[in-house]
Amino acid sequence: MERSAVLAMVSAGVLALSVTIPATVLAAPAADQAPGSELAGKTVFLDPGHQGTGHSEDLSKQVDDGRGGTKDCQTTGMTTIDGVGEHTINWNVSQLVKSSLESLGATVVTSRADDSGWGGCVDDRARAATRSGADVAVSIHADSTTTGTDNDKHGFHLIVPTLPILDAAAQSAQSEGGRAASNLMRDSYERAGFTAANYAGVDDGVQERADIAGPALTGVPLVFVEMGNGSNPGDASVLESSEGQLKHAIAISTGVIDYLLGPDTTVEASGGDAQSDVSAPTPSTAAPSSPAAAGGSPASGGSALARLLSGISPYVDSMGVDGLSDLVTEDNVDAVSNFAQGLLKQLMAG
Which residue out of 226, 240, 243, 268 is catalytically annotated? Predict the structure, then answer.
């Protein structure tokens, strides 16, 4: 994805919300908090699920499954009906999430350094998450239901482990923080306009399983998100596209933010950053006047910062990433809040 396209999308969405969200939504600035440091002191572990093919390790090697048994070390993941590998989708989304969280001051640790080299077995990644001491870990995946086309099964879901878990640290982390973070991620996905999965026993966007090793081996709160079904044409088109990957990244980032800050926490905005008189784009490039006008739901629920970021998605739906490029000017970037400018700068540098 081109940096200019990402900048265009984020700038337009955040600029529009700086108009539509009243300044009173945001709390007064904290004396000791610099803009762009809202997540300072927080650590997030990101695991782009699965593995590319540029390695010589044995993926079928048996490793601890956290339940007293073993399972395959790793897999390359599913392939969408259009031939796009899950490991690449997961990687792309994770990089956008990483940029978003780092721009707000968070420390982000990742399980693999790229989409080609070796990223570790499932137990290695769980140990790495635990060693990181992260406030929350997020394992990013996409699902499939068949090697062919499945027109009926679709939607996102969060996998949570069947309790109890043998390891005491994992039991504590997943029964408390992990479950809370998963529920907030589910809420973030729903606010972003994604539909919960209608298959595999998913209940209100959540599926309980005892056969996933990661949660049973991880000693920090873990969110395990399945972004959609790569066998479903609608889900696959979103997973494969730059716009769709960005929408997923926004949903994941806002879910993490709500967990780290608390869903009811307001966020400082310095001086006149929450503009109420910012000029709208010219008619030839006008963005929707509100998130609802773009075909999504108005930004509501979650922290003020999460609402600001989650309101971007409807603009992607309406205009696409490339269609927003004309909205970016120096005046537009200068008009948005300082923490949003930090996000833009991080994405531009990525």
Answer: 226
